[in-house]
Amino acid sequence: QVQLVESGGGSVQAGGSLRLSCAASGRRFAINSMGWYRQAPGKQRELVATITRSGSTNYADSAKGRFSISRDNAKNTVYLEMNSLKPEDTDIYLCNAVVFDFLRGGDYNYWGQGTQVTVSS
Prior knowledge:
The protein has 121 residues and is mostly beta strands. The chain has strands spanning 2-7, 10-13, 18-26, 29-39, 46-51, 57-59, 67-72, 77-82, 91-101, 107-111, 115-120. Strands 2, 4, 5, 6, 9, 10 and 11 form a 7-stranded mixed sheet that branches. A 4-stranded antiparallel sheet has the order 1-3-8-7, with no helix packed on it.
């Protein structure tokens, strides 16, 4: 089992910035890709950004130019730097990791509990 713990959410005014962090912990695992998704109550989960172990990134159109995803492989941690925030960025942001589990064998998909981001106008 792998646990993902997110931090860094909060409330900011439009134009402000937030930095989200997500740290993975567990036994005998290797993280492939990590990423951030967003979800509003009753709505589908949406991609925000992903990053592979080698550092290749992918962003939703709404995040391009404003958000930056990065990771520290030594710390099993992924970050999301969010700048020029808009009220429409308000949502619950969830961390995701695709992990190779050496104990069970194979890739598994893990999710964090989510962190609230609220942007006021």
